[in-house]
Amino acid sequence: MSEIIERYDRAMALKEGGDLESAVEELNGIVADEPDHVLSHSALAVFQEKLGRVEDAVAHAQRVTELDPEDPFAWTQLAVICQRCGRGEQGDQAMARARSLAGGGPGPGAAQPPSDDSFAV
Predict the structure, then answer these.
(1) Which of residues 62 and 113 earns the better pLDDT score?
(2) What is the pLDDT of residues 29-82, one digit of tens each?
(3) Assigned domain for 119 exists
(4) Which residues of 2-29 are buried (b: 16+ CB within 10 A; e: fewer)?
């Protein structure tokens, strides 16, 4: 597994150096060897979206939710990727799942409790 970590770190260094294409190649190699490497799929979702590769971006974000279905961040990432890729309905569904996993709190636009001075410190 340490080889995978080294390869992942190399991919992140490539990205930081401005070589997004080479970072994607490195990450694709990792997921070819380790199909369940969550961090690589997560990074690929973001990088592919930045490169305008909608199908690949969404596929990697979905894979993250398959590998870690109880992680609200995974679903939030899928929601954001979908929104950025023009898949609003799919993004809304993913965000609803993220919220339910995070405790079911209200989302943006939900009614806020009345503000009064009883809560002032």
Answers:
(1) 62
(2) 999 999 999 999 999 999 999 999 999 999 999 999 999 999 999 999 999 999
(3) no
(4) eeeeebbeebeebbeeeebeebbebbbe
One-letter amino acid identity for 56? D
Q: Which two tokens stand for residue 80?
A: 């954001």
Task: Print the domain residue range for 57.
Answer: 2-103
Supply 67's token pair: 């590998």
Contact 64, 97 (CB under 8 A): no
65 assigned to some structural domain: yes
What letter does residue 111 receive in the DSSP assignment?
Answer: P
Q: How wide is the angle at C-alpha 21 spanned by C-alphas 35 and 33, nearest 5°? A: 20
pTM greater than 0.85 (yes/no):
no
pLDDT at position 91, please? 97
Structure tokens at 13: 């260094």
Question: Count of domains in the chain?
Answer: 1
